[in-house]
Write a structure and sequence with these properties.
The chain is of the alpha+beta class. The chain is 40% helix and 20% strand. It contains 23 helices and 30 strands. The structure holds 5'-O-[(L-methionyl)-sulphamoyl]adenosine. The site of 5'-O-[(L-methionyl)-sulphamoyl]adenosine has 19 residues, from strand 2, helix 1, helix 8 and strand 15.
Length: 653
């Protein structure tokens, strides 16, 4: 069907959004835009989780009524999302009357199907996670009044390692145990239900180990939605929170049944790895009980860590996305989060890496190329670029083929939710585009061969158009600016993926000069790179270690492009690269940088290589040269590359 419904988790409103909340939400925004690009009708749902003990306690601590307490954070969420160009369709709040009614209808349905029974819950409860840690069902209720749950400290929560409290109260139980086999069958029949696979395996072994019934109401937490026909109880916060995914699109509202049927089931539900069990076990079981279809896919991402630790208020390492917005703008951060952190792993947030990405990828590779194209066209009064009737040049045909390969491979990565690989692949093409522009030297042919000049500019503009369209889901407004500068009017859906795939290498471009798309990050004052070397540094070198100029010229240093790169099974340090060294041909060179780069990050990049080193054998493979690297302040090996792309094989002098 031509629709795409995506949801994010709804966030606990005990504080303003942080980088982790932005991360979850960004995945949904990028995917929504990716599907818009394919001309689909999209619904993107996000919102806030406002009931329960955790929120009530935070409100109490602030000396406020829970509703007034949560209300104060909502503008911060909505403004942050707006600033980061998060284009959601609907923002659901679990205190919305529509949600509250819908959640009650849902629970009533479970009562009607006989999946709910009253009993007593006795055991440990983790308030920060809002989780029943043990699932013991008592038969007689202990004297509840004598037990002040918040006063008894229990074992640590297995999920978040915080202290649990003892709870003994009458509750309603959901017959989760009755759904064990049905769930296992569902996972087997839908192997792509949980992405990535590692998470699916965890869920499978959890369910296989046996499911106990689940308490779904509380009598000691008044800040919640009243349980149907028994207002002494409130609905357990997770049960009603999960319902947001259906109440927001009309579940339980007789006037919205068509709408509900149109959108449900969700195509993708995005969530962090800490809340997999709720989404992959409890939620599907509830839906099965209510006789509703299950979501098509759960996309589980890892955590963003800071200094290798999870962000938390107590550690004081929570990153405020608005501070990053002020310092770098929204789109570079969007790009960094999608490019740097693989979805299936935890990733470390690192400001230096963010700055490097901005300078190297965005300002140098992309913004600079657009700028050079437009400036050169303006110099020779060629702002209107017409494509030749037939593309005949080998370099242009290669570039066109490569652009078509790029689309295909980019799409394959996006379909697999491998955003960082998709972007690395796109950057490989951007590097090729830079190499093309440089090696064709349009500034040299402008005067003597205007036809060739126009052809080179046109081919470059075609390449940049493709880049802007594919990058639009990640950096929407910057890419719209870039398309404007190329004279392309952008209408998402009109430039559908199918349409983009056709290549359209017969476009006319009408270039316009725009302000720089991205600004380089200047080295901060006091950092070594901004300092001019002082004379003492030279005199500190012992005279007997000086070398003659002839010693230096013995070393043949050249620029090359890494055209292929792969890991070596027998080595966790080395990468095997094929390096195009121009007149020297393509050589196999091994580099000890596996810990710092993935092959995808290197393919297409230029580097500096020692080319006359005696061939060396390592792990059974010969290396015909050496790559130059330097360690940055964090000990990460950085590939040394020329500040701008130069022809392969160029000698350093
Ligand atoms: N309210 C529940 C979700 C209910 S959905 C029906 C909840 N809220 S939360 O605010 O604690 O977390 C919401 C999401 O933010 C989760 O997907 C969580 O993984 C994500 N993140 C919170 N901190 C994070 C990081 N440091 N890194 C990445 N995402 C993390 O759980």
């Amino acid at each position: 069907m031509n629709k795409f419904y995506i949801t994010t988790p709804i966030y606990y409103v005990t504080a303003k959004p942080h980088l982790g909340s932005l991360y979850s939400t960004l995945f949904a925004d990028v995917l929504t835009r990716w599907h818009k690009l394919q001309g689909k009708k999209t619904f993107f749902l996000t919102g806030t989780d406002e009931h329960g003990q955790k929120v009530a306690q935070a409100a109490q601590k602030a000396g406020m009524e829970p509703k007034a307490f949560v209300d104060q954070f909502i503008p911060a969420y909505q403004e942050t999302w707006k600033k980061f160009e998060i284009d959601y369709t609907h923002f659901v709040r679990t205190t919305d009357p529509e949600h509250m009614r819908g959640a009650q209808t849902f629970v009533q349905k479970l009562i009607d199907t006989g999946d709910i029974y009253p009993a007593v819950y006795e055991g440990w409860y983790c308030t920060p996670d809002e989780t029943f840690v043990t699932h013991e069902i008592g038969h007689t209720q202990k004297d509840q009044k004598s037990v002040r749950p918040e006063l008894i400290e229990g074992p640590l929560c297995p999920s978040c390692s915080r202290t649990t409290v003892f709870v003994s109260e009458s509750t309603y139980f959901f017959k989760l145990s009755a759904y064990q086999d049905k769930l296992l069958k569902f996972y087997k029949d839908h192997p792509d239900f949980i992405i990535p696979k590692e998470r699916a395996n965890e869920v499978l072994s959890f369910v296989e180990s046996g499911l106990k019934d689940l308490s779904i109401s509380r009598t000691t937490v008044p800040w919640g939605i009243p349980f149907p026909k028994d207002p002494e109880h409130t609905i357990y916060v997770w049960t009603e929170a999960l319902c947001n995914y259906i109440t927001a699109i009309g579940y339980g509202n007789p006037a919205k049944q068509e709408e509900f049927k149109f959108w449900w089931p969700a195509d993708v539900q995005v969530l962090g790895k800490d809340i997999v069990r709720f989404h992959a076990v409890f939620w599907p079981a509830f839906l099965m009980a209510a006789d509703l279809p299950l979501p098509k896919q759960l996309l589980v991402h890892g955590w963003i860590k800071v200094d290798e630790q999870k962000m938390s208020k107590s550690l004081g390492n929570v990153v405020d996305p608005m501070a990053l917005y002020d310092a770098y703008g929204p789109e570079p951060l969007r790009y960094y989060l999608m490019r740097q952190l693989p979805i299936n792993q935890d990733g470390n947030f690192n400001i230096e890496e963010l700055e490097t990405r901005i300078t190297a990828d965005l300002a140098n590779d992309l913004g600079n190329l657009l700028n050079r194209l437009v400036v050169l066209a303006a110099k020779y009064e060629s702002m209107a670029l017409h494509a030749p009737k037939i593309w005949a040049g080998a370099a242009e045909l290669d570039l066109r083929d490569e652009s078509l390969n790029t689309i295909q491979e980019f799409e394959a990565f996006m379909v697999d939710f491998q955003f960082h690989h998709a972007l690395a692949r796109l950057w490989k093409f951007i590097h090729q585009l830079n190499v093309y522009f440089h090696t064709q030297e349009p500034w040299k042919v402008a005067a003597k061969d205007p036809k060739k000049f126009a052809e080179i500019l046109s081919a470059t503009a075609h390449g940049l158009r493709l880049v802007a369209l594919l990058l639009w889901p990640v950096m929407p407004s910057k890419m719209e600016r870039m398309l404007q500068s190329l004279g392309v009017t952008f209408v998402p859906g009109e430039h559908s993926l199918e349409d983009i795939k056709l290549g359209h290498w017969g476009q006319t471009f009408m270039l316009t000069k725009i302000e720089n798309l991205f600004e380089k990050i200047e080295p901060k004052e006091g950092s070594s790179s901004s300092e001019v070397p002082k004379s003492e540094t030279i005199s500190a070198v012992a005279e007997d270690s000086f070398i003659e100029i002839t010693d230096l010229t013995k070393i043949e240093l050249r620029v090359g492009t890494i055209v292929a790169c792969e890991t070596i099974e027998k080595s966790d340090k080395l990468l095997k690269m094929s390096v195009d060294l121009g007149e020297l041909g393509v050589r196999q060179i091994l580099g000890g940088i596996r810990k710092h780069y993935t092959p995808d990050e290197l393919i297409g990049r230029q580097g500096l290589f020692v080319c006359n080193l005696k061939p060396r054998k390592m792990v059974g493979l010969e290396s015909h040269g050496m790559m130059l690297i330097a360690q940055d302040a964090n000990g990460k090996s950085q590939l040394m590359d020329p500040a701008m792309v130069v022809p392969n094989g160029t000698r350093l002098q």
